[in-house]
Structure formats: C-alpha cells, structure tokens
Design a protein that fits this description.
heterodimer; A: mainly beta; four-stranded antiparallel sheet; 25% strand; globular; B: Protocatechuate 3,4-Dioxygenase, subunit A; nine-stranded mixed sheet; two-stranded antiparallel sheet; 1 helix; 12 strands
Chain lengths: 233, 198
C-alpha cells in the first residue's frame, strides 16, 4: 500500500506563533517555511520492533515497591491514518505528571509531592490493528508561569511514530469536561473546535474494569492516506 | 464516530526529559540515543554537533532533536524503501536533548546519496526534527555537509534562496580523527535556519 501525505491536512495543527502561549514568541520562525516535494527521506521512517518495548513498559503503576497514589485509569485507543485504518506496529511513548500534578524533572519545583511509586513515563507498540493500551494514574492539573494564575488542564503527553518521518506526532491527551480548557492557551492554540476536541479523550464505560479502574479512549490520527492514481509521487 | 482529521500537535513541553531523553539523569530507560553507529555499520564515522538559539539569540536548553537518515549506501532501514535492503543493523534514527548550554551532538555516519522522486541524486543529508517548549508543532530541516560535490546540484537546496542556503550546510571543524561537523540551529531571526513545509 502506498500512502500519500497531503500538506492540506496540516491545517489541523496550531499556528507555530500563538502569542497567548508566550514561549512561542521567540521560538517560532519568522520567515516562511519552504515547501518541497516529499522524497524517500521524508516518506520512510524508523522501524522498531518489540525490542524497544519491555514487558511492563505500558503499566506506569507496577514498576516500584508500592502502588502509586491517585486514580488508576486505563488509557487505550487506536493509532489511525487519515482513512481511519489502524497503523500497526508503531511506537507510542507517553509521559505525564503524577496525581498531584508534579513531574519528575529538576525544573518542576511546584509545591506538590513526588510519588516514589509512580513511573511517570511509558511505552507501548500498537498491535496489528493499531491498538495500544496503557495503565496509569490520572494526572493532576498544575500551575505554570505563562500568565497570572495559569493552570494546565490535566493531560498526558504522547509521542507517536507513523510509517513516515513526516507523520511524526507529539501531542497531549486531555480529559473530558475539564473546567480549565477555556483558560489554557496551549489547548486553545488549535483554532478549529472539531480538531481541538480530537485531543480530548472520551470516557469509556464499557472498558472500565469494575472495582479496579476507569477507562478513557484516545484515538490518534496520523498523517497518511491511500494514494490515488491522481497523486503521482 | 470520530471525524477523520489529524490529531493536532501540541508542544513537547519542558518536562519530557524523564520520558524521552533520560540519558542517565533519570531512572527511565532510553529507547533511543544520540549514537546511531552499530559495530557492523559501514561508512565514514562523523559527529554532528551544534547549539540551538531562540529569536533573542539565547540558548535553548530544553530542546529535543531527532535525525533520520540513510546508510552509507543511501538506503533506509525501512521496508518501504524497496531498493536493496541495508546490510547492517544501522537504524538511521537518533534522538538527543540539548543540555544546559543548548548543545547537542549525534555520532553517526555520513549518509550516501538518495534519489529524489524523479530519480535525480540528492546530496548526502540528514532530516532533522526539532521539538521544544514553546513549539506547538515541531520543525523540520535538513543537514547537508560542507564540501560535498553533490550540494551544487541538489534539488532541495535549489529550492532555497541562495543567501539562506548556508544555514543548511554543516561546517567541517578542523582536527584529526573522525570528522566533526557543526550545525547550529536558529529558530528565529535574520539568520534563521531554513525550515521546510513538508
């Protein structure tokens, strides 16, 4: 199957310069990007097998002596292409704050405790249907310095590889109904509401585990659609 | 039913190091490193190093860089490359976080020539993706190598205004041993690195 990667799909992404998110002001290019045709370099990408993912890397709650504090959750979904087909055998990495909204990072010094039993990062490979699954803790909201009384909505960072280096995606998964959405310049950097809502996971009652964990579904749509004969590459 | 548009990009943020580039500083393991060379890799060993600067000329200490490249014979370690398969375990992918001084380095090999869609040769190049706090969508650029005969006829360099081409060419540092190439990245400003809309 040959995939094409139409540049028009990129309209879903935020503008690189989004002044409400202040750090973009000095970190976004001021000159126009140069369009180019995709060559083999752009249309291929790294292929990693199961050796990259260890047995329990998808479970952020069982790697230490005790259990982490907070609300245990299942986060699962499919990695899809733009035609809705599952993208098999790709690496999905995630990292997040703990239940108190604190990251394991020297720069994060906000006054909330670290949790020695929470791992803070995970890794999974999508299966033959593009399906992935993690077990983790619902992250807390946390303050940041962008503006007075700025708080990030609870989110999980995702890093995903597709079948081409141009389908590389780093994004954030949010939780439904978060009251902080309307105040967050990072969430609102995505101009189109429908696109913005694609970053919000859905509560998945059917796949909760009774007496154990709630479940959220997050499908991730990467660049790539079936090439038609019109699009000669 | 979910509509089929792309999942939008969001910034990698300031706190990715634990999960993506721990490199011994945190207890999570590294899936990738900045050393792409495997014992069976053929080709000229090189180091590509540089710094990342923002629009004020300040160093960017919280940047993540990823490179993707062909092997010394110009082949990609991906079955979608239908030409002869690579003859080594060289993967062609590396990841590096900038340090407190904004420095990064990759140890790799000089890639070979890769054809463009018309079959014309492209000069040796690395594809580079740049992620950081303050970057809502990563940037792509290419690293070419000073002194390569193929640069003059490269179809992608030809798309770039002549006065900006130098931002895409890594300069060879003097010294013996493996070649060291310097490639600084300027995210914004008069001498801004050329980025590609791909």
């Amino acid at each position: 199957m040959t995939l094409s990667y139409p540049v028009s799909s990129l309209a879903a992404h935020p503008a690189r310069l989004s002044p409400a998110y202040k750090s973009t002001i000095k970190r976004s290019p001021s000159k126009p990007l140069i369009p180019m045709r995709h060559t083999l370099t752009e249309l291929t990408g790294p292929v990693y097998g199961h050796e990259t993912v260890r047995e329990n890397d998808h479970d952020l709650t069982i790697q230490h002596k005790g259990e982490p504090l907070g609300e245990r959750i299942i986060v699962h979904g499919h990695v899809l292409d733009e035609d809705g087909r599952g993208v098999p055998n790709v690496l999905v990495e995630l990292w997040q704050a703990n239940a108190c909204g604190r990251y394991i990072h020297v720069v994060d010094q906000h006054p909330a405790p670290l949790d020695p039993n929470f791992t803070g990062a995970g890794r999974a490979q999508s299966d033959a249907h593009g399906y992935y699954r993690f077990i983790t803790i619902k992250p807390g909201a946390y303050p940041w310095g962008n503006h007075h009384n700025a708080w990030r909505p609870a989110h999980i960072h995702f890093s995903v590889f597709g079948h081409a280096f141009v389908s590389r995606l780093v994004t954030q998964m949010y939780f439904p109904g978060d009251p902080l959405f309307e105040f967050d310049p990072i969430f609102n950097s995505v101009p189109d509401e429908k696109a913005r809502l694609r970053m919000v996971s859905s509560f998945d009652l059917e796949n909760t585990k009774p007496d154990w964990a709630l479940c959220y579904r997050f499908n991730i749509v990467l660049r790539g659609r079936e090439a038609t004969p019109m699009e000669t590459k | 039913m979910q509509d089929k548009g792309l999942t939008p990009s969001q910034t990698v943020g300031p706190f990715f190091k634990y999960g993506l580039t721990p490199n011994g500083a945190y207890d999570w393991n590294d899936a990738f490193t900045n050393n792409l060379v495997t014992p069976d890799t053929s080709g000229d060993r090189i180091r590509v190093t540089g710094r990342v600067f923002d629009g004020d000329g300040k160093l960017v200490p919280d940047c993540m860089l990823e490179i993707w490249q062909a092997d010394a014979q110009g082949r990609f370690s991906d079955p979608q490359d239908k030409r002869a398969p690579p003859n080594s375990s060289f993967k062609g992918f590396g990841r590096c976080g900038t340090d407190a001084n904004g420095d990064y380095a990759f140890d790799t090999i000089k890639p070979g020539t890769v054809p463009d869609p018309d079959g014309k040769p492209q000069a040796p190049h690395l594809l580079l993706a740049i992620f950081a706090r303050g970057m809502l969508l990563h940037l792509y650029t290419r690293i070419y190598f000073d002194g390569e005969a193929g640069n003059a006829a490269d179809p992608i360099l030809a798309l770039v205004p002549a006065d900006r081409r130098a931002t895409l060419i890594a300069t060879r540092e003097s010294g013996s041993g493996n070649a060291v190439y310097r490639f600084d990245i300027r995210l914004q400003g008069d001498d801004e690195t050329v980025f590609f809309d791909i």
